[in-house]
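Researcher: Structure prediction, please.
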Amino acid sequence: MKNLLFLLLFTGFAAGCSEKPAGNQLAPEAYAAQMQKEAGVLLDVRTVEEYSEGHLEGAAQLDYYETESFESALDTMDKSKTYYIYCRSGGRSGTVLTMMQQKGFKSVYNLDGGILAWRKADMPVVMP
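Model: Predicted structure follows.
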């Protein structure tokens, strides 16, 4: 009985730890292809300093760490539009993906691995 309980707890714990945020996590090539296929709003959720070090062309910047203004901005966005979000490595934007889904956004795509993965895939970055 103890072994069965342990197995059930361990299985549930392992499954919970391996999950990515719900939604559309796309590798750089798939992310670029989706943006070509379906127009949307490109949103960089890094800091102003990170954004100034290079960003995706056409990306609007909205700092995830500016908690109050970030939440307010999300609340004013059109939930029926498609959004493409990214950050440095995918962590912040993964959290934002979940936030947006909880707020009722219908179509949100996250760049898996963030701009680091984008650059590693030799995808274009705009330098100010």
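Model: The helical segments are 2-18, 28-37, 48-52, 67-76, 91-102, 114-120.
Researcher: Thanks, that helps.
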